[in-house]
Amino acid sequence: MKKILLFGFSLFMLTSCMTSTSLYDWKNYETTSYLYYKKQTPEATEQLMKTYEAMINKPNGSRKTIAPGICAEYGYFLLQNGKKAEGVAMLKKERELYPESKVFMDRLINRFSE
Predict the structure, then answer these.
(1) How many CB atoms lie within 10 A of CB 25?
(2) Residue 1: which pLDDT band, with cuts at 50, 70 and 90?
(3) pTM for this model (two decimals)
(4) How many whole angstroms from its chain centre is CA 24?
(5) Which letter does DSSP use for residue 82 in this model?
(6) Average pLDDT in the 67-92 region?
(7) Which of 23, 82, 89, 114 is the most exposed, fewest CB within 10 Å of its CB?
(8) H or E element, residue 2
(9) Radius of gyration for the alpha carbons in the chain, expressed in angstroms and rounded
(10) CB neighbours (10 Å) of residue 3?
(11) Residue 86, number of CB atoms within 10 A of its CB
């Protein structure tokens, strides 16, 4: 009986120490967003746009979906850079993926669709 308990406990300890996959794949988002907000150069802007597009077009992680807020943030980023149609489309995509953001997304969409 002791051997079974020891084996069970050992097995539990080994499996609890395994690395887990994250729900979302953030690509290089932390670094590129930091560099953009720190420098705001054309190169940093381009790199941040590529990171957003990679996160949206190739979502990984265990959920295989776009992380919450990324479409909204990218949409607002596009709006700030004069790309109104694409920005509003991203805000709508955020609303579609995460219905709990509907109230806030509708306000932004109405504000920028005028």
Answers:
(1) 19
(2) low
(3) 0.78
(4) 7
(5) T
(6) 96
(7) 114
(8) helix 2-16
(9) 20
(10) 7
(11) 15
Residues 6 or more apart whose Cβ sits within 8 Å of residue 61: 21, 22, 23, 24, 25, 67
Q: At 49, which amino acid appears? A: M
Q: How many residues does the chain have?
A: 114
DSSP 100: G
Three-state DSSP state, 18: coil
Place of tokens 């941040």: 48
Of 59, 93, 58, 57, whose CA–CA distance to 73 is shortest?
A: 93
Give 101's contacts (C-beta < 8 A, 6+ positions apart): 68, 69, 72, 94, 95
CA distances to 11, 28, 68 from 31, in Å: 38, 6, 18
